[in-house]
Amino acid sequence: MDEWMWLIAGVLVLLGIIAVVVALPVWLIVRRVRSHSGVPVPPVAHVNIIEEKTVMEDSSPAVQPVVHAAPVPVAAPRSIWSEHDVLVRFVLVAVIGLFMLVPLSLIDGQAQDRGDLRASVTRDIAATWGQAQELGGPTLLIPVTVRTKSKDDGVVEVADTLVLLPKVLQIGATINTEIRTRGIYESVVYTAPLQVKGTFDLKPVAGFLKDRGWITPHYDQAYFSFGLSQTSSLRDVEPLMFDGQSIAFAPGARNRALFEQGFHAPIAEKLSASAIYPFEMTVTVKGSEGLRFLPLGEQTSVQVNSAWPHPSFQGNALPDEHQISESGFSAHWTIPNLTRNYQQIALSSEWNARINEFTFGVDLFEPVKLYGEILRATKYGILFIALTFALFLANELHSTNRRLHPVQYGMVGVAMSLFYLLLLALAEHMPFVWAYILASLVAVAMNGVYVGFALRAWPRGIRLGIGLALLHALLFTVLRMEDYSLLMGTVLLLITVGMLMHATRRLGNNG
Q1: For the chain, what percentages of helix, strand and coil (3-state, to nearest 5) are there?
Q2: pLDDT average, residue stretch 129-156
């Protein structure tokens, strides 16, 4: 809907430019022609004897001719340049426009440097507070002894670990965001309490061990393992509730084949191979950028709520349901185990799949389009300066007054280039819309006043200032549109060509 609104606004601005650049000069020309049409110009420019005066013979000479001087012919107003003047002016303006690429490229590089600096500051804040977190647990790890025959018909015992994933896994996350600042830069960070609960079903374990041969499980040495991508950002971990018993956690995930980092809790009771064990835990993590989950359950259900209004859902699965508003967002995922490439039960030594190859979650998108919009604006910079010069040329082609010197065209181009630098400097300290308005007012005022002084014609300066203001408004609509920016840029080029065609339509035709 917003794209259509900006598209309509852009069309209205284009119509305004056509009115100012094309219709207004045409109206002025019509007025000038009408004002000169009432002046009589006699066809002959020599002395005519138009009257004879007769008097009586006895009073004065017979005939005295009365001589009237013919009026001096008035030259017709010059409405366009000569072909030579137009060609030279167009070439000079084109060369000046190409030279304007140099300051535009410098400003473009400056915007990229400032964007890289902001990204570096954001990474520094994330390194101290916490980076994007990936929730890897939980798993139930059961030590086993595997017996195999040796070459001399003996028996070899090898210690291994049986990995059992939850049958049901339910995660509820509330992401509480806050803004951290460093200098003029800001970064969003979060603190997220996670409620994790589910069940482990040990019934399939007996069948798995039977198919594998001589494997002896040690249920009394089992432990609960929970993986986390960055344990240094843990804020609080409450004791594990496993089958109604409270168990404290210890550092380390205990199985680096699955998780590089994490923590674990030894199971205090001897597990039964035919029972289902519920578990529940609460862990609070700090992080930034986003939060990811692994679908470790045979049926994984995740609910995420936050007051942050700009979520960006990422990963291998989008939420089944989500709501986004100005007050925040909520999202719910339901992931079956068939979407991943690893089993519910496996020996650690035979684990050949990356457990984090399938992830899903949300990023806390920061709507900082400042440097991106400025970079897009500089990409349109040469077109914007060309439109400005075309506006000035179209005005001069229909004028009989003074014209701008090429050096003055260069000063106008430099002022238009400095508009982008001023926009970059202001936008780092205020909302982009207000920065754009202030930078546009400065650029329009500078060029309008400069042209008024240079041409000694304030109406032309005011008219050109109005045209520049409309061009700035048009550029703003193009920057606000993403899907229709190419369409608007193409229409803008067509309008520019149409303006120049209208202004040069009489060249080569003395009439």
Answers
A1: 45, 30, 30
A2: 82
